[in-house]
Every structure is written in structure tokens, then in C-alpha cells.
Amino acid sequence: MVQFSAILPSFLGVVLTSGDMRLRMLEVLGHGAYGVVYLAQDLNYSSSQPKYYAVKCLLKQPEDSEHYRLQQREISYHKAASSLPNVVRLHQVIEDDFYMYLVLDYCPGGDLFSAIIDRGVFIDHNERLRRTFLQLLDAVHDCHDIGIYHRDLKPENIMCSADGEDIYLCDFGLATRHKLSVNFGCGSSFYMSPECIGDCTGRKPFVTSISDIWSLGIILTNLITSRNPWHVASPSEDVAFAAYLQQGETWLRRMLPISRGACSILARIFVIEPERRITLHELRNAIKELNSFF
């Protein structure tokens, strides 16, 4: 696959202008397959009270190409979700002859992956973990409520505020408005549901909103244990997942350092038959009522 981000020039020091907005690119925040994200300072604000944005720089695609269609779809879905409380806001899209610039909220706390792995902020912190996961549930519920199904839920696509108290969902590049999908293998393998992989459930249309719930279960495991329960939800590719299919909740209790209550919740998420999986509403109530995750 072409890594479009690899052929982008450096935008460091560049000033973007659109209407009243003037943004100077200060530093690179991160790279993806399709773009590079920069920290940008709004030059309309004084240096004593600076205002910052994150700017995602993308190579402009030919209007008759599939990449252009996917680019426009991502922008459309992100705009539609931008007014939701726990979603990174897309403020503006700036274009020139060769590039597109998505002006987004800057979240100085970094992504949830770094909070979990690098800073360990959730270890033995029940209420912090509960608050974070409930916010994530609300973000996903609100997106589903307006007919947007994310399909790539993972800690790297969840941003944190400076104090770590609030989280915001981002990256709608794989999102869909289709309630049913036959787009197998869409997302990140660690977080894909069995029905999205299609190995042990058969390749049949699956419900995208329910598939998102499986991904939330993997994220909840990340938050509690700083690890994944398996690499991929395919018994032919992952012995840990194959063992879970045979032993169920017993395997989860033995392998994961979590409370019985948390284990019970995960077992209700990691149900192979999507129609029997816990709902978002039920999951939210279960998380609120849980005494301890550890």
C-alpha cells in the first residue's frame, strides 16, 4: 500500500491562511499512512495566551479516484460528529492545489495508548478508569445515534485532555453509515470482532454497531491490564483466542489480572454470536455498578 504520508513535504514553519484563520505549523505530532499531523499556533492570538490546533495534512487526491471518495467520506462523517461532546472537533478544511489540511482540536494529553502504556495512569485507579470508559461509551453511543459506526475503535484513535480527565474520539477514516457490512478485515486486527474477520462466524453480513462493541471490550481490557487478551479473534490464527472459545470466562479469569466483576462484563462482550452480545446501554449500566476493575 502506498504510504502517502511518506511523500508529503515538510510543512514546518508554513503559515496556513483561510479567512480570518492564520495557523503556523510548529512541530510534528504524528504520522499515519495517509497524512502527517502538526501542532499549529493560531497567529490571531497573543503569545501570552496562545491558541493551538492539530492540523492533519493530506495529499490531495484526483476527484475521480477511490482515495478521493474515501477522503471526502472521512471529512463528511467527522463533520457530522464534530458537535458531539466526546469527539475531536473538525473546525475547518483548508485546501490548495496539492494538499488538504484538516484543522482539528489539539488534545495536549496525547492519545489513550500513551496514557495506558507509557504513563500507566489507569493502574489501580478504579474511578479514573470508570470515568474514561464511560466517556468512550457515550462517544460511541452518540455516533451510533446519528448513524455513524466507527469500525476502528482503538486507544490510538482516542485523544486525552491535558489533565487526562476527558477523552475524545477521532479518526473517522474507516467509519460507515451502513448498519450491515460485508467489508471483512476492516479496522485494526487486535480490535476486530470475529464477525468482521469472518473466520469462526462465516462470511455473512454483520451489524456494524455490534462489531464496535467488541472493540470496546478489547479497549476495556487494555485499560485494566495494559495488554490485549489475544492478537486476533481468529481460532485458526491465535491459540489464545482458540483457548478462550473452548474455556470461556474460566480462561479470562485465569489469564487476566482483573476482578470477577470485570471478567463477567468482558465475557458478556466477547460473545461470538453478535445478537447475544451485551448492548451499549447494558454495558454502561454494568460499568457504573461495578465495584472494582482490579
TrEMBL record:
Keywords: ATP-binding, Kinase, Nucleotide-binding, Serine/threonine-protein kinase, Transferase
InterPro entries: CDPK_Ser/Thr_kinases, Kinase-like_dom_sf, Prot_kinase_dom, Protein_kinase_ATP_BS, Ser/Thr_kinase_AS
Residues annotated to bind ATP: K56
Domain Protein kinase: 23-294
Signal peptide span: none
Gene Ontology molecular function: ATP binding; protein serine/threonine kinase activity
UniProt key word Nucleotide-binding: yes
The organism's place on the tree of life at top rank: Eukaryota
Nucleotide-binding recorded as keyword: yes
SUPFAM superfamilies: Protein kinase-like (PK-like) (SSF56112)
Record-linked PANTHER family: SERINE/THREONINE-PROTEIN KINASE
UniProt record similarity statement: Belongs to the protein kinase superfamily.
Protein name: Kinase-like protein
